[in-house]
Design goal:
- It is a single chain.
- With 295 residues, the protein is α+β, with helices and mostly antiparallel strands.
- The chain is 25% helix and 21% strand.
- It has 8 helices and 13 strands.
- It has helices at residues 4-13, 24-38, 60-63, 65-70, 74-84, 111-119, 159-165, 213-223, and strands at residues 15-19, 45-47, 54-58, 88-98, 106-109, 126-132, 143-145, 181-182, 187-188, 226-228, 234-238, 244-246, 255-264.
- Strands 1-11-6-13-4-3-2-8-9 form a 9-stranded antiparallel beta sheet.
- Strand 8 (181-182) and strand 9 (187-188) form a beta hairpin.
- The protein is globular.
């Protein structure tokens, strides 16, 4: 049960770290399942720009019995319900796999702008729960957060403005293949590549809606930056509006995180012209019931 102080911390800072209470042998089972999922030929599997290193796996709860149980684990689900003050369903489940010396950046961004613009989410009445599957240190690409930024009016950088602003750190040259890749083939994301689905650029290092330096500076000057480090088994809950990102993994060890996004059942997605796949935006709005027994 969350204390009033913990809830206040989440409301003010936009994030909260807790101990999941998951046993060591269950964490080992989750890691083994991640390894199995990495070998699956699935469109939700995303590769790094090298075309071979796994960057992430999406829709894990839809293809894995273990992950379908994990999202209902009381130590995670009860916190999500308390923070949302409502029943919840799963909007998205993914694994972010920052591999040793290969894991690439996630540019500064807010999650909610993707869900609002791409999925039709009408309010930010959702919460992310990140389960650390490895120890997260300052050196292996921890999540970086700007505390309190979820209460700021952050630019959304919709495509009309974002494309022009991208000319600094990221190339828009169609011949530039230094971007993430989706699926087994490892095809590079490119604006000129009509074979890549529109949602592919939502998952790569060349991220849609990313913030520019001039937009980031006043937020950091006002709020600072915090790194979310901790032990394997720790849980990080964070608001979908908080500005966050992560650097490369410069360590010789992996930094794997399982991320569950819970949405309020009262916050169902509106119809959109081009819905993203179910593994990115699930539309099963049935409220989750707590898992009985161990994972």
């Amino acid at each position: 049960m969350l204390s009033s102080a913990q809830i206040n911390t989440y409301r003010s800072d936009g994030f909260l770290t807790l101990d999941s209470g998951i046993e060591t042998d269950d964490l080992d089972r989750i890691r083994e399942e991640v390894e199995r999922l990495e070998g699956m030929d699935h469109p939700g599997r995303v590769l790094e720009k090298d075309g071979s290193t796994v960057r992430g796996i999406h829709g894990c709860h839809q293809v894995s019995e273990l992950f379908s149980r994990l999202v209902r684990l009381p130590s995670i689900l009860s916190v999500a319900r308390r923070l949302m003050e409502d029943e919840v369903y799963v909007h998205q489940v993914k694994v972010n796999a920052k591999r040793a010396l290969e894991g690439d950046v996630w540019p500064w961004h807010q999650d909610y702008v993707f869900w609002e613009q791409k999925d039709g989410m009408q309010r930010p009445k959702a919460v992310n729960a990140a389960l650390f599957l490895d120890d997260v240190t300052e050196f292996n690409g921890p999540l970086l957060l700007i505390p309190g930024s979820h209460m700021e009016d952050v630019p959304k950088n919709l495509p009309e403005s974002n494309s022009a602003a991208a000319s600094g750190a990221f190339s828009d040259d169609p011949s530039d293949t230094s971007r993430g890749a989706a699926g087994k083939s490892g095809t590079a994301h490119s604006a000129a590549d009509s074979t890549e689905p529109d949602w592919a650029s939502n998952l790569s290092a060349d991220l849609d809606f990313r913030l520019r330096g001039d937009q980031l500076t006043p937020l950091v000057e006002k709020h600072g930056i915090r790194s979310a480090t901790g032990r394997a088994g720790d849980l990080l809950f964070f608001d979908p509006r908080i500005v966050h990102g992560s650097g490369t993994n410069m360590s010789p060890g992996d930094r794997t995180v399982a991320l569950i996004t819970y949405n309020s059942v009262a916050n169902q997605l509106a119809e959109v012209a081009a819905p993203r796949p179910e593994f990115l935006a699930a539309r099963d709005y049935r409220p989750l019931s707590p898992l009985a027994g161990r994972l």
